Structure formats: structure tokens, C-alpha cells
């Protein structure tokens, strides 16, 4: 758990980031129910605090809770993405985690090839790296 709010972290790294209103605790819990397991606590906390994070040019760093549910349900039906829970990314590369094994860190998954690579040690590392990279552009 962060000692400061996710909102403060995001805006400290990229002041131009777009944050929605926080998701309700009920919406976050319902997302876990629809997906068959509770969302990881750091992701749930981020969603309750920010509602999702968009970086420069509207890049989806962390999707809103509704998109997390929709896209994961669709991907489970259409793609062999394994045990990943996706929460960000775009058309060709999705970002997620293995909720049952936090030691896997944050993983980018290539839709076309199925290749996985670790991009951050945890959610805070991912969010700050993703936003800091956008801050340089």
C-alpha cells in the first residue's frame, strides 16, 4: 500500500495525465466477481483513487474498471493469454499481471506473437515508468 495517494503519484510524474473520478469500492469488487477473482490490491487501490490513468495523447496506462472487465472477458474467450489479468495497453501490446503470483511483476503481452516480457517489478514501478517515459516526449 502506498503512503501517498495514487493520484498524487501520477500527477507528480506527469502533471498532464488524465484521471477519471475514482471507481467505487462496489465497482471494483464487482469486477473481481465477474472475472472470477478479486483484483490485486494495488490495482484495486489505484482504481478506487483514480478511476484509471491516461497519459500523454490519451495513452491508456491503466484502463478504467469497466474496460478491465470487458477486455479480459473478451480475451479469455478469444486468445490464449493464460493467467494474465490485463489492465492497460493498446491494440498490439497489452499490459497486465499474474494475480496469483506477484513475483512475476508487470508483463507486456504481444497479441500477434503471444510473447511475454516483464516491463516492471510492480504496479507502482510500471505506472511511474510509463508516465515518466511519456514525460520525456
Structural features, described:
- There is one protein chain.
- This protein is of the alpha+beta class and 137 residues long.
- The chain has a single domain (6-135), classed as SMI1/KNR4-like (3-Layer(aba) Sandwich), CATH 3.40.1580.
- It is built from five helices and seven strands; from the N terminus they run H-E-H-H-E-E-H-E-E-E-E-H.
- The protein has helices at 6-13, 25-35, 41-50, 65-78, 123-135, and strands at residues 18-19, 53-54, 60-62, 85-89, 93-97, 106-110, 116-120.
- It has a four-stranded antiparallel sheet with strand order 4-5-6-7. The protein has a three-stranded antiparallel sheet with strand order 1-2-3, covered by helices on one side.
- Helix 2 (25-35) packs parallel to helix 4 (65-78).
- Residues 1-25 form the signal peptide.
- Keywords: Signal.
- Residues 22-128 form the Knr4/Smi1-like domain.
Concise structural overview:
41% of the residues lie in helices and 20% in strands.
- The structural class is alpha+beta
- The portion of residues assigned to helices is 40-55%
| CATH topology tier name | SMI1/KNR4-like
Taking strands numbered 1, 2, ... along the chain, how are they ordered across the largest sheet? 4-5-6-7
Number of strands: 7
Domain Knr4/Smi1-like: 22-128
Protein name: Knr4/Smi1-like domain-containing protein
Pfam families: SMI1_KNR4
Organism: Couchioplanes caeruleus subsp. caeruleus
Please outline the helices and strands.
Elements (H helix, E strand, L loop, with lengths): L5 H8 L4 E2 L5 H11 L5 H10 L2 E2 L5 E3 L2 H14 L6 E5 L3 E5 L8 E5 L5 E5 L2 H13 L2
Antiparallel strand pairs: 1-2, 2-3, 4-5, 5-6, 6-7
Amino acid at each position: 500500500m502506498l503512503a501517498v495517494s495514487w493520484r498524487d503519484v501520477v500527477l507528480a510524474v506527469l502533471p498532464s495525465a488524465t484521471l477519471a473520478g475514482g471507481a467505487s469500492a462496489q465497482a471494483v469488487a464487482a469486477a473481481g466477481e465477474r472475472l472470477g477473482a478479486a483484483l490485486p490490491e494495488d490495482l484495486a487501490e489505484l482504481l478506487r483513487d483514480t478511476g484509471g490513468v491516461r497519459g500523454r495523447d490519451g495513452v491508456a496506462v491503466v484502463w478504467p474498471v469497466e474496460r478491465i472487465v470487458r477486455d479480459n472477458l473478451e480475451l479469455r474467450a478469444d486468445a490464449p493469454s493464460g493467467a494474465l489479468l490485463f489492465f492497460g495497453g493498446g491494440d498490439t501490446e497489452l499490459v497486465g499481471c499474474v494475480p496469483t503470483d506477484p513475483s512475476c511483476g508487470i508483463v507486456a503481452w504481444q497479441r500477434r506473437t503471444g510473447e511475454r516480457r516483464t516491463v516492471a517489478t510492480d504496479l507502482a514501478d510500471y505506472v511511474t515508468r510509463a508516465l515518466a517515459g511519456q514525460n520525456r516526449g
